[in-house]
Design goal:
The protein is α/β, with parallel strands linked by helices. It has 7 helices and 11 strands. The chain has one domain. Helix 1 packs parallel to helix 7, helix 2 packs across helix 4 and helix 3 runs parallel beside helix 5. The longest helix has 15 residues.
């Protein structure tokens, strides 16, 4: 199964993030046989990255994640998560969420917020069906509601930005923002995680 890591062109710590993101996913999720890196400009969307990855060839089922998302312990890819509550947004993100909710309600779907920076298992065929819907939407929310509906668990946000000097996030998923990455303690934590992923801790098998 492939791991698709989506990165931003303006990430100043890209090399570090990509290396540790890949290492932590491989370490805690067994069955990853190939990694596909997709970098998108700042203004592009996750849907664009998914389309690019599929166009370049990915496995029928693949894990979708971002380069600033790290796995810190065993993680079961069979489980599906959504936000415990809607997140405040601004700019184009508001428009895409309004469009997403409007489309979902109009077509009798659930309308939960799936925009959370965690690895998700994506079926290529179903992803293409979502991507073929005309309009500007949030891919995770559209895919999550159309494919999983309410068959998911609520989870609190895993996104950290800015970084607080004394924190030691437990995970199992930790996502960091651009402001956090400017903090020396954040990059120190990422390097520490990388070292931990070199040990021999047992891994969990992902769904094939």
């Amino acid at each position: 199964m492939n791991l698709v890591i989506v990165g931003s062109s303006d990430n100043k710590e890209k090399d570090l993030c990509q290396e540790v993101c890949e290492a932590s996913h491989r370490f805690h999720i067994e069955g990853i046989d190939r990694v596909v890196h997709v970098t998108i400009p700042f203004c592009n969307t996750l849907g664009t990255a998914v389309r690019n990855a599929i166009d370049h060839g990915v496995s029928d089922n693949f894990i979708l994640t971002t380069e600033t998302t790290f796995v810190t312990s065993k993680y079961d890819m069979d489980k599906v998560y959504r936000r415990a509550r809607f997140n405040q947004r601004k700019g184009d993100s508001i428009d895409r969420m309004v469009n997403s909710i409007g489309y979902l309600l109009q077509h009798g779907q659930t309308s939960f917020d799936y925009e959370i920076d965690i690895p998700i298992l994506v079926n290529k065929e179903k992803a293409l069906e979502v991507l073929d819907i005309k309009g500007q939407y949030h891919f995770r929310t559209m895919y999550g509601n159309i494919v999983h509906g309410s068959d998911s668990e609520k989870v609190e946000d895993v996104f950290i930005d800015p970084w607080v000097h004394s924190i030691d996030p437990e995970g199992p998923i930790v996502s960091v923002g651009p402001t956090a990455l400017k903090h020396s303690q954040c990059t120190k934590w990422i390097r520490k995680l990388h070292s931990q992923c070199q040990s021999t801790q047992p891994k969990i098998r992902a769904r094939p």
